[in-house]
Amino acid sequence: MRRLLLLVLALLLVACEATSSTANLSAGLSPGEDGWRGSALDTDATMPDVTLVDATGEQFDLAADTAGTPTLLFFGYASCPDICPIHLAAIAAGMQGAGVSHDDLDVVFVTVDPERDGPEEIGEWLAAFDRRFTGLTGDMATIEEALGALDLPGPVVEGADPRGEGELIGHPAQVIGFDADGDARRVWPFGTRRADWIADLPRLAEEWA
């Protein structure tokens, strides 16, 4: 079985909780010996070869349509109270701060809550962070196939959202980076700050193209 994570196994499945602390965001990530903030992966995992639906309602072949461009892939859901919006806001701010454009990098968000996140809903939600982020939905079986291809766990219902917005869903909390050939290269856990992305994104865009 392929192993996707090395140093962040404890973050494989993190419940989105409306009252959860974000204290670990204050420190950010320490650079490794190679200077990267994200952790290197020793894996043969590749971009999942599945077809989903984008925010315009068109089919999106995840492997084929991201080929040729480095890609950040993240699984979550639009009603998530903390992990998802924090990750996406940090990436958007990091791209702007680092001067990395969407010609250099694709950012793809796949919902784990397709019943609530249809194409229109996911498109409107992502637009609050960056209209050029790619949002994908589809049937649950295909989404779970994509997760399984990366040895990531499926979503877990954690109970009622105290905000009255349905259910809280536990989901993988890390962003996975793929090079232009579709090979998984690095992972960034929850707690990755704008400064961390500013440090890593230029290298990602240049070295993984």
Please characterize this protein's 3D structure:
This protein is α+β, with helices and mostly antiparallel strands. It has a single domain (52-207), classed as 3-Layer(aba) Sandwich (Glutaredoxin), CATH 3.40.30.10. The chain contains five helices and eleven strands; from the N terminus they run ββββαβαβαβαββββα. The strands form two sheets. It has an eight-stranded mixed beta sheet with strand order 2-11-10-5-6-7-3-4, with helices on both faces. Strands 1-9-8 form a three-stranded antiparallel beta sheet, with no helix packed on it.
For the record, give the distance between the C-alpha atoms at the N and C termini, rounded to a whole number.
27 Å
The largest sheet is: 8 strands, mixed
SSE string = EEEEHEHEHEHEEEEH
Number of helices: 5
Please give the structural blueprint.
Elements: E1 14-15, E2 39-40, E3 51-54, E4 59-61, H1 62-66, E5 71-76, H2 83-98, E6 106-111, H3 119-127, E7 134-137, H4 140-149, E8 156-160, E9 167-171, E10 175-178, E11 184-188, H5 194-207
Parallel strand pairs: 5-6, 6-7
Antiparallel strand pairs: 1-9, 2-11, 3-4, 3-7, 5-10, 8-9, 10-11
Please give a handful of descriptors for the protein shown.
209 residues; Glutaredoxin; eight-stranded mixed beta sheet; 11 strands
Question: What's the quick description here?
Answer:
The protein is of the alpha+beta class and 209 residues long. It has helices at residues 62-66, 83-98, 119-127, 140-149, 194-207; strands at residues 14-15, 39-40, 51-54, 59-61, 71-76, 106-111, 134-137, 156-160, 167-171, 175-178, 184-188.
